[in-house]
């Protein structure tokens, strides 16, 4: 049996600001990328997500639906965002009302291999490499570990 | 000196069930993909591994040799399976008798950026995003952390 | 607005030793790859980094600038190296004097999904899958966890 083969790429419905750079291969669809931002290779950015101005989304990163990232943010390599907490013991599948949004403020820097559950992260935060962010972050600071905890204020 | 260049893709020896969808680019070879399953982009699935029916293998995930996944499973983004514990202090290389299998049951959901060492995971489990599963899981429940521990039964 | 589209690939300035194998797609530029080494798909290796002889760099791995890896090393899948500790509360951007190097010795094996901050790792070490290495490692052994700690000497 032959599978149905789809191809990654840049869908026609992606909204790009001015002076954006994208390094192929990527899988971008239905999202908004702000002015002067950079999208590295081997990334996927899903629909109904939004990246601000002057951001860098580095290689191997996955940004799911319902993620909103502010301006001047740096998202390292291999960072995974999550919108489904499997709250009923399994994926929400088509029950999108169970999906939860993530809002990342401005001037937030997220280290490589971090995992970001559906949370709000305030402006001027640093998330350490390999951290797993499971709760809202409301105070500027450096956060690291699994689960992520405040290491020092900024 | 010029390197030898190989190309990723879908090898002729992959066995697909009915109604499978694959999003390129992928690197699939010698594996079995069950009916109605979905394989996201930037994935690699190695030989002698098997994915059940109605599964989703999301982007950026790596499934190694000797992994068997049941039906109705969800494997999130950036999930890495492992078959070599470096038990002699280094990779087993060609001593494949040192490699260990992983068996994932049915209705198992694995969160993004999780790492799955060679273990058995029973039916109806949720593995949290960013978890590192180092031991067999024999009781349905939600497991998270590094190393993964039971958070609550299901 | 149309973005500027760049393409991943193997830049002309990569220095390859004899008998190297590369599986496309990759993004390699300005780096040195030693004799008999293997580079898996969906990898990025940046400029001013160096891989020794008889190494395997597995799929989905990112090796940043200023990383030097010795001979006979195994770097698993989805491993992320880091050179910028955001020491001023944000990325160093063009202030490269803030970037820090990583030196990995010979016969080092790094498990999948590990995160390696800018450190020195001595010869004959095993880094567990999913580990986050935050400090220099000066004693041969097996290290795991977040942050990585000595599990047993080798």
Give a short summary of the structure:
The structure is a homotrimer of 154-residue chains. The first copy, chain A, is mainly β and 154 residues long.
Principal-axes shape call of chain A: globular
Largest sheet properties of chain A: 8 strands, mixed
- Which pair of protein chains has the largest interface, and what are the residue counts? A-B, 29 and 37 residues
Estimate nothing, just give the exact number of structural domains of chain A.
1
How do the helices and strands line up, and which of them pair or pack?
The structure is a homotrimer of 154-residue chains.
Chain A: E1 4-7, E2 15-16, E3 21-24, E4 26-28, E5 32-33, E6 38-39, E7 43-45, E8 50-51, E9 56-57, E10 62-63, E11 67-69, E12 74-75, E13 80-81, E14 102-104, E15 109-110, E16 115-116, E17 120-121, E18 126-127, E19 132-133, E20 141-144, E21 149-153
Parallel strand pairs in A: 2-5, 3-6, 4-7, 5-8, 6-9, 7-10, 8-11, 9-12, 11-14, 12-15, 13-16, 14-17, 15-18, 16-19, 18-20
Antiparallel strand pairs in A: 20-21
Report what the structure shows.
The structure is a homotrimer of 154-residue chains. The first copy, chain A, has strands at residues 4-7, 15-16, 21-24, 26-28, 32-33, 38-39, 43-45, 50-51, 56-57, 62-63, 67-69, 74-75, 80-81, 102-104, 109-110, 115-116, 120-121, 126-127, 132-133, 141-144, 149-153. The N and C termini of chain A lie far apart (57 Å). Chain A has a single domain, classed as UDP N-Acetylglucosamine Acyltransferase, domain 1 (3 Solenoid). Chain A is mainly beta and 154 residues long. In chain A, the strands form four sheets. Chain A has an eight-stranded mixed beta sheet, with no helix packed on it. A six-stranded parallel beta sheet of chain A has the order 2-5-8-11-14-17, with no helix packed on it. A three-stranded parallel beta sheet of chain A has the order 4-7-10, with no helix packed on it. Chains in contact: A-B, A-C, B-C. Chain A binds chain B through residues 1-8, 25, 27, 42, 44, 60, 62, 64, 78, 80-82, 86, 89-91, 113, 115, 117, 132, 146-147, and chain B through 10, 16-25, 33, 39-42, 56, 58-60, 74, 76-78, 107, 109, 111-113, 124, 126, 129-130, 142, 145-146, 154. Strand 1 of chain B pairs parallel with strand 3 of chain C.
């Amino acid at each position: 049996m032959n599978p149905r083969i789809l191809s990654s790429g840049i869908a026609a419905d992606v909204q790009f600001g001015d002076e954006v750079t994208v390094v192929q291969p990527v899988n971008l669809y239905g999202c908004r990328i702000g002015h002067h931002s950079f999208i590295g290779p081997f990334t996927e950015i899903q629909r109904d997500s939004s990246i601000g101005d002057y951001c860098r989304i580095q290689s191997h990163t996955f940004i799911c639906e319902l993620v909103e990232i502010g301006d001047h943010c740096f998202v390292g390599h291999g960072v995974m965002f999550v919108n489904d907490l499997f709250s009923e013991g399994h994926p929400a599948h088509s029950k999108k009302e169970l999906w939860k949004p993530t809002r990342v403020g401005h001037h937030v820097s997220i280290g490589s291999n971090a995992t970001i559950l559906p949370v709000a992260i305030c402006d001027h935060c640093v998330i350490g490499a390999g951290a797993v962010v499971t709760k809202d972050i409301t105070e500027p600071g450096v956060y690291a570990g699994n689960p992520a905890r405040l290491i020092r204020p900024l």
